[in-house]
Write a structure and sequence with these properties.
mainly alpha, 69% helix, 6% strand
């Protein structure tokens, strides 16, 4: 029995995104120049290039691989029975990640075709949106080995998991807002704002889970 039973309702958006990405891949491949940008630095300047084939088809295959991974993860988790408790959040997170990657792929593809596309701003907006939405749903995630704030202390104690994710949801929302702000600023403060946002999301919940675990186990 599947820990999360796939249905047409839960899988239709990811499947459409995968199909669209491959259709776009063939379109891009026939219109791309021989060398296309594959990476942009923090200032939005191209600092890496790839072949037309790699630029056109890498992300469609990445989306397909991620989709398969999301289907398999619940089977691999020793706590697979917990996924039923947050299956709506799991499907939302799966669809959201694939949608944002598809959006970045679309923007990068049109930039490679010569259109004026602000990749830095688009990536900041989309990743910031991902953090905000994921943060708003984080308190619904139950203890598991793959999704959420997985530290030795959250995985060892249900109360630590619950309280850490309640706090982590707030820090992720704050980080998401700061990531969007970093993309909009476009000045010397952008990198500072970005780093502050990442540190808030990554460090605060980890430190909190350790302190809370020590307090509870005493």
């Amino acid at each position: 029995m599947s820990p999360i039973k796939p249905t047409l309702k839960t899988e239709i958006i990811p499947l459409i995104l995968i199909i669209l990405s491959f259709v776009l891949g063939f379109y891009f491949y026939t219109h791309f120049p021989a060398r296309v940008p594959s990476h942009w630095n923090f200032q939005g300047q191209v600092d890496s290039w790839s072949s037309a084939g790699f630029g056109a088809f890498f992300l469609p295959f990445l989306l397909l691989g991620m989709y398969i991974l999301f289907l398999v993860i619940p089977y691999l988790d020793p706590k697979k029975e917990r996924y039923q408790e947050f299956k709506g959040t799991y499907h939302l997170f799966k669809g959201l990640i694939m949608f944002i990657l598809f959006g970045i792929y679309l923007a990068a593809g049109y930039a490679a075709l010569g259109y004026q596309v602000d990749i830095g701003l688009i990536v900041s907006l989309m990743i910031g949106l991902l953090f905000i939405i994921f943060g708003s749903q984080m308190s619904k995630i139950k203890s598991n080995w793959f999704i959420g704030i997985r530290t030795p202390w959250t995985l060892s104690n249900e109360e630590v998991w619950t309280k850490t994710h309640a706090l982590g949801g707030k820090t992720f929302i704050i980080a998401g807002v700061l990531l969007i702000l970093a993309g909009l600023l476009k000045n010397s403060w952008s990198l500072i704002v970005l780093l502050v946002g990442v540190c808030i999301a990554a460090l605060v919940p980890v430190v909190y889970s350790y302190v809370l675990f020590r307090r509870i186990t005493k």
